[in-house]
């Protein structure tokens, strides 16, 4: 299976992962044509065009916040939390930093994510 890794879950990266997952990702009763992985250091994405309304207090932040885990589940792609800190082009691997909670306790260790196609959406 061809592995696509998208680094950066902003409007472009999230939209691409969602579109590819809907079209090519695995679903109940079928194997996916592609393995799509989105990597972002945050757990959620806030649609930026609405920030002025949120700042003014006329809109709730939660109304325009997308949870990556839920989005990945609904749209057939994989989400990995973390920040890209390196790239090995020869081995086709993205190096992802350890992820720590607010107290600095490591939740996930440093790891590599292999790819066939890499998209940097940062």
Record the strand order, biggest sheet: 5-2-1-11
Summed up, the helix count is: 3
Poorly predicted ranges: none
> How would you classify the helix and strand content by structural class?
alpha/beta
Helical residues, percent: 10-25%
Gyration radius, rounded: 16 Å
Note the main sheet. Answer: 4 strands, parallel
User: Overall pLDDT, averaged?
Assistant: 88
Beta content: 35-45%
Number of strands: 11
Helix/strand order, N-terminal first: EHEEHEHEEEEEEE
The backbone outline, from C-alpha atoms, is globular
Structural account:
The longest helix has 14 residues, at 11-24. Strand 1 (2-7), helix 1 (11-24) and strand 2 form a beta-alpha-beta unit. Helix content is 22%, strand content 37%. It has helices at residues 11-24, 51-55, 68-75; strands at 2-7, 34-40, 44-46, 65-67, 78-81, 84-88, 93-96, 99-100, 106-108, 111-114, 117-120. It is of the alpha/beta class and 122 residues long. The protein has a domain at 41-85. It is globular.
Secondary-structure map with pairings?
Blueprint (H helix, E strand, L loop, with lengths): L1 E6 L3 H14 L9 E7 L3 E3 L4 H5 L9 E3 H8 L2 E4 L2 E5 L4 E4 L2 E2 L5 E3 L2 E4 L2 E4 L2
Parallel strand pairs: 1-2, 1-11, 2-5
Antiparallel strand pairs: 3-4, 6-7, 7-10, 8-9
Helix pairs in contact: 1-3
């Amino acid at each position: 299976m061809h592995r696509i890794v998208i680094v950066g879950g902003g409007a472009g990266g999230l939209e691409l992962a969602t579109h590819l997952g809907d079209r090519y990702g695995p679903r109940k009763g079928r194997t996916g044509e592609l393995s799509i992985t989105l990597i972002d250091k945050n757990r959620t994405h806030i649609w930026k065009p609405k920030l002025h309304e949120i700042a003014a207090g006329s809109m709730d932040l939660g109304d325009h916040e997308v949870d990556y885990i839920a989005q990945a589940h609904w749209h057939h792609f994989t989400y990995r939390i973390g920040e890209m800190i390196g790239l090995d082009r020869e081995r086709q691997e993205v190096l992802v930093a350890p992820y720590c909670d607010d107290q600095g306790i490591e939740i996930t260790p440093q790891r590599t994510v292999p790819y066939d196609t890499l998209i940097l959406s940062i």
